[in-house]
Amino acid sequence: MPVERRFRITGLTLAAQVWGATGERPVLASHGWLDNAGTFDLLAPKLLGCEIVGLDLAGHGLSDSRSADSAYNIWQDVGDLCDVADELGWQRCTLLGHSRGAAISMLFAATFPERVDRLVLLEGGLPITAEAEDAPEGLAQALREARALRGKAGRVFATRAMAIAERASGFSKVTPAAAEVLARRSLREVPGGFQWHADQRLKATSELRFSAEHTRAFVRRITAPVLLLFATESPFAGRPLYREAAELFADIEMAELPGGHHFHLEGAEAAIAERIRRFLALPT
C-alpha cells in the first residue's frame, strides 16, 4: 500500500502517494487532467526497485487549489515539480507522466535537463498547441471562462453510483473500475450527495498555448532517454507533432499497447510495467 505524504511548497500544499522505499530509484509521477495520483495505483506496485512519488497536482485530488488570482497553466506545474524534487532532495530523478502529466514532465525535462535521467510518457508528452495568431482571442476566451468558473463547485450527484457512472462516461471515458480507483482521492460526500473534487477553473481554456515551434524547441532540449507509450485507441498518436516524435527526440523508444487513453488503469498495466522495467533496467 502507498504511504501518504504532503509537500508544503510556495503558496499551497500538495498531497502525494509514495510507493517503494527511500534510496530506491527516484521517480516523480504526474497524472492527467482532472485525475489524481490514484491513476498509478495499479502500475506503481509493479515497478519494484523504485521510490515513486505520485502527486495530486494543484487543484486535483487531495491537494490545495491555486489562489484566486492564479491560473492553471502547465508551466506552473513544472515549478511545483521542481519544488517537490527539491524538498525530496532529488537533484536528479526519473519522470513518469500520463496525458497532461506527461506534457508537464516533458517540459520539466526540457527546462531542467540536468535533473532528469529518464523520461517515461504515457499517452502524452506534447502539449496541445495553437497558432501564434490565435493567441489574443485564446487569452480572451481563457479569461472569460476562468471568470465564469471562479467560485463554482462541481455537480452534486444523489448517489455514489451515479457519480461513478458519470466519470466513466464523461470527458475522457474510463471503465467503471478505473473510475472507482480515481474516486478514492477525488470523490467526496457533500450535503445532498457526492461530488467530484477538482478546481473548476481547470476546465477553462489555457491562457496561452505553445506554438508547434515552441514545443519543438522544448523537445530538442531534452537530453534524457525517452519512453513514449501509446494506446491502440489513443486520441493523440495521430496528431502531427506526435508523428514527428521519432525525429524530434534525440533518444526515444516508442511502442503501442492495447487499450484506450487510460490503458494503465484498464488492463494494460502489466505490459506497460514490463516496458518501463526494461527501459529503466529494473529487476524483474
Describe the 3D structure:
With 284 residues, this protein is of the alpha/beta class. 32% of the residues lie in helices and 22% in strands. The strands form 2 sheets. It has an 8-stranded mixed β-sheet, with helices on both faces. Helix 1 packs across helix 2. The longest helix has 15 residues, at 74-88. The protein is globular.
Keywords:
284 residues; three-stranded antiparallel sheet; single chain; alpha/beta; 9 helices
Brief overview, please?
By secondary structure, the chain is of the alpha/beta class. The chain is 32% helix and 22% strand.
- Order of strands across the main sheet: 1-2-4-3-5-6-10-11
- Termini gap: 19 Å
- Number of H- or I-type helical stretches: 9
Helical proportion, percent range: 25-40%
Low-confidence stretches: none
Q: Please state the overall shape, judged from the principal axes of the Cα atoms.
A: globular
Percent range for β-strand residues: 15-25%
Oligomer: single chain
What's the alpha carbon Rg, rounded to whole Å? Answer: 18 Å
